[in-house]
Amino acid sequence: MGRIKDTLLQPSGLEVIQLQCEYRNEWLGSDQSHPQFSWIIQSDQRATVQASYRIQVSQDIQNWQQLCWDSGHVKSDQSIQVQYAGSPLQSQTRYYYRVQVQDQSERTSAWSAIQWWETAFFDQSEWQAEWITAEQEWHNAQPESVFQLRKSLDLPSQPISARIYATAAGLYELMINGTRVGNEWFTPGWTSYNHRHQYQTYDVTAYLHMGDNAIGVSLADGWYSGRLGWENQRQHYGEHTALLLQLHLRYEDGQEVIIGTDTSWQSAPSPITLASIYDGEHYDASLEQQGWDQPLFDASEWSKVKVLELPYHHLIAQENWAVRVTEVLTPVDVIHTPAGETVLDMGQNMVGRVRFTGVLPTGASYTLYHAEILDQQGNFYRGNLRTAKQAVHYIADDTQDRQISHAPRFSFQGFRYVQVEGLDHLTNRQLLEVFTGEVMHSDMPIAGSFECSHPLINQLQSNIVWGQRGNFLDVPTDCPQRDERLGWTGDAQVFIRTAAYNYNIAPFFQKWLRDLSADQRSNGSVPFVVPDVLSVLDEEKGDTELPGSAAWGDAAVICPWVMYLHYGDKKLLQEQYSSMKAWVDYIYNQGNNQHLWNTGFHFGDWLALDAKENSYMGSTPTDLVATSYFAYSTRIVRDTAVVLGEVEDEQLYSERLQQIIQAYRHEFVTPAGRLAAPTQTAHALALMFDLLDEHDQQRTALELNRLVIQNGYHLTTGFVGTPYLCFALSDHGYHDTAIKLLLQEQYPSWLYPLSKGATTIWEHWDSIKPDGSFWPDDMNSYNHYAYGAIGEWLYRYVAGLDMDESLPAYKKVKIHPLYGEGEITSARATLESAYGTILCSWIESGEKRQLEVIIPPNTTADVILENALLSSIQENDQSLQDVQGIQTVQEIQSAVSVTIGSGHYHFTYTQKPIS
User: Fold this and answer.
1) I need a surface site. Which of 42, 335, 430, 881 has the fewest CB within 10 A?
2) Which residues are the active-site residues?
3) pTM of the prediction?
4) Where is the Alpha-L-rhamnosidase C-terminal domain positioned along the sequence (predicted)?
5) Please, what is the angle between helix 694-710 and helix 680-688, to 10°?
6) CA 849 to chain centre
7) How many Cα neighbours within 13 Å face the side chain of 429?
8) Closest CA to 512 of 564, 484, 571, 472
9) What is the largest distance, in Å, between two alpha-carbon atoms of the chain?
10) Which CATH architecture has domain 14-119?
11) How far is residue 778 from each of residues 385, 471, 532, 730, 767, measured CA to CA in Å?
């Protein structure tokens, strides 16, 4: 755990770096009329604070006299989420921007490096292209097959600028002159297509040339019309796939030409005879038409396309991080199982695809099956996939041996093990050489890191990260392998804060929350999954009530609030505010008591270990769980009203909150102060959601501690209780119990799965039981991130990297490691916040503690040194009163609190002797 070196600065000593527009460094294809800017400051002095800023925006990178916006010198320390306030933005225009700042010492930075963003369309009338589809007979004869569409172009000269705006009802892959455009996959992504449908923008200037050109597009069903959910349901959004594409060309002489999809395009079947999210892909190379996506191809036998009457009003520019291949893994072993199967071990449960690169003999074929585990006998095991096949089948060309490089293009698999059939002629060594695993997920920038002195905890953190990578593939899925892969709201809300420590999830959750609002029902209830594909099944069965469940529907409130805390994005909070209120108002209108939620269906403490026989729901009463979340979400809505200046709402929800808390205490707390439900989850929720008076808090914390110790330092919690269990213990003086709970290696515990070889988080604490048997196949995922929510506690309490929530986005950092009670002797966490890098790294040796801290410019921090002997504290071998950047020092309870400005600090101190 080495130190981070201080970055060298330019001679000015003050610089503006890493300009971003809506979290992106360069943003191609925006439809935001008032985008937000952020930047990071670097300084060679401690305690640097921005005193003013100036932003300039221009359409001409060479001309900063004719500006679209000049903010002037704004006296403000705001350096994130600064909203554009210039002249109206124009469609299909590139804008350049730069920033200059001044600090509190009146030092002025040079202008930053110039950054840019480019707009797409602001109005649906700008779409001139038509939605086109292939021959319907092909669709009917070959469900879930892929079709090819092409268009020939004859350009009079080389364009100086060329942009393609494209989307599909389904999934598409774009080719120009035989070359794939971009590195994005699964475009246009999965949204609530009936309300919001993304399109992508591509700069294709370098792909085109004077003379003959060709555009080729492959079109698959994907989430739009392919199989999703249970009961073999397809066509949730429409019967047929379709393409919408518009090419804009600009020439040297100022001429502009638009070429769009219309009836002049042609279509034909592709070699991909099956492309399914759940079932994989089949590719028959003998059906290839070489050069179909290149100029001068003879398409005389291709069919005409048809125009579909699909809407334009719901089209939006790409919002989410694109899905990309982010890492390539090499198999670590070839296993020949007792059943005679040949199996590749990737060494890691991953999500993505397997690529074969090598020579296939004429007419040969191979099939790959994907699975997460081997069974007790060491054989390939696919039972937990349920009906998902996860198979890739490739048939070679029947005319000649040739070198190929093949991987599925419209399907992803969740797997660690790959069964290989049809390549018996290859040796183990050759198999390891010809196959690679390509990891795929939304390409979120890495935000944080955590490590400590305990190797099993480091492996747990790795499992959490890999679980996030595998399940954040365009939507936050519950699992990436079986016939589900849906955006379960409960899983998302319990994990979102951990997710924000690991990666920059801002665009990812912005997009998903907008879909949640779109799918939210008129009565305010929130579907179990977003995008909502399950309500259709319920409605077909005659279930018209379609209730929302506590802790699941609360994602409508919790997720926007966490986004605000981590990124300071008031615009998103304002955008989601009506959805947030609609959810808590929906709860308020349930049942015969407006302040208790004791009606309807709830998942409860899902998969808790204290569940009754043959039940997935824990023994914590569902009305207790529901009312607890009712109070929590009402509190967040009240706090949101404060942030947004909604005074009447603040008063309304404050009153409701107090009434809910009183109803909770009357219903679930005995007159003596004991919780009516003797479960770990009930106690954790009561403490974390602040539902008790101070005296009862102490008793409840004591009882929670007793429940954990009585159970041998084992947890009994499920999806609802687990995220809060260690927090409730640590916050109320029982951090040593929380550490012992974390370090428990026997079932049930966070570390038990590691003893069974887990490399991701499991759905069940005992997905593989101690005797080696498995949970039933009906619901047993080995990549299910919800229990990875412990990661937030690792960052905030073990490493000590936290925030003062009154100043969001880490404007005021809180550094407060609680240490490891001798079990963990060092920990280190970093976070790329909106203001820059934050570091907290500590080492404990006997009575001595060392703490390294980095706080970025334009922020401050409270550093709390637990059990510190004030007279022993030094920073870089200096007494605190002599240190630049230290603002205040005070003793608080059993700790010393040091308030510091930005900079790189090294504290050392001796612990107080045990009295």
Assistant:
1) 881
2) 484, 763
3) 0.97
4) 805-873
5) 150
6) 35
7) 0
8) 472
9) 92
10) Sandwich (2.60)
11) 8, 19, 21, 36, 12
